[in-house]
């Protein structure tokens, strides 16, 4: 298949291009598109055959359900059995935005979209191009992140093209996304609302809207021995090709520890790298050093993390060390993704 690549500026949307992309989706084809979180790989959510194509294009296990994207609140009742009060409270504050809610699904949603589950994940993105595309496609667009299964989610179109060129009818290039980590997922089908995947919308923010909210313990605790409640969270994910180790501890001790490790590879032909911060980047002894941003600027760290993981692949780095980040606020989402990328390999830096 020849993939058509179209640039669309969110602030000056070409209606003809959106119309064409909407037609592709209505006809059962696939279109990758930007959202404020990461790029999505879109298909018609109510068409079984489209969902099957999404799984094939991503190489994704078919028990891993897709998120259905809508552009207006009225669309929600078409795909869910009931809308709990908490959903209205949360939607009022955080939709449109980087938040996904899980509901009991209605018969309109095929099992091919929900990975066989009776529940459906729904998100209303704020990105203007995404919203225009959803409208043009008839209102319901299923979209996982637009990466090959297992790779970091794409935050720029270049990596969508790298993973999906030739597998989809169209890729919309909307430049770099603004958030860089996938949406927060909250399950509203249990007794209490529960966060299944941390993201930009934090537990505290959700509690402000809807009272007490639980967190799936597997999100932060890698050793609980329990299966995560979002099927996709159990798969190895985001992993760079090189071996990634996170080093935790006092900032000074972390720099010392990583430098000691780097020294072991000096004079070998193994290529090393470091995920550093602006404050520390100049202090590492060698290898490919990449800063994710300033330590205090968590939003920048979130925005840059996936791109940097991909760049280590481009640079063929074999052994990577990462600094760690406080697991609060957005930091919880950053560490959740970093831990998955590292296959939960984390060590404590000790003061020499
Ligand atoms: O920000 C995002 O959410 C992006 C953009 C494109 O919207 N999408 C995204 O989709 O990250 P994906 O497919 O890469 O991740 C969806 C996650 C998976 O972990 C999946 O298992 C979980 O959502 N999920 C989907 N439906 C679910 C359901 N009914 N119950 C539990 N988990 C569900
Ligand atoms: Mg994904």
Terminal Cα span: 57 Å
Number of strands: 16
Overall pLDDT metric: 95
Helix content estimate: 25-40%
Count of helical regions: 10
Q: List the secondary-structure elements in sequence, H or E.
A: EHEEHEHEHEHEHEEEHEEHEEHEHE
How would a crystallographer describe the biggest sheet? 11 strands, mixed
Output the radius of gyration: 20 Å
Strand content: 15-25%
The quaternary organization reads as single chain
What low-confidence regions span 5 or more consecutive residues with pLDDT below 50? Answer: none
| Helix/strand structural class | alpha/beta
Ligand species: threonylcarbamoyladenylate, magnesium ion
| Strand order, sheet with most strands | 1-8-2-3-7-4-6-5-9-10-11
The outline comes out as globular
Describe this protein's structure:
- With 352 residues, this protein is α/β, with parallel strands linked by helices.
- The protein is 30% helix and 18% strand.
- The chain has ten helices and 16 strands.
- The strands form two sheets. The chain has an eleven-stranded mixed beta sheet, with helices on both faces. It has a five-stranded parallel beta sheet with strand order 14-13-15-12-16, with helices on both faces.
- Strand 9 and strand 10 form a beta hairpin.
- The longest helix has 17 residues.
- It is globular, with a radius of gyration of 20 Å.
- The chain starts with a strand and ends with a strand.
- The model has no long low-confidence stretch (mean pLDDT 95).
- The chain binds threonylcarbamoyladenylate and magnesium ion.
- Threonylcarbamoyladenylate binds next to strand 5 and strand 6.
- Threonylcarbamoyladenylate (TXA) binds next to strand 5 and strand 6.
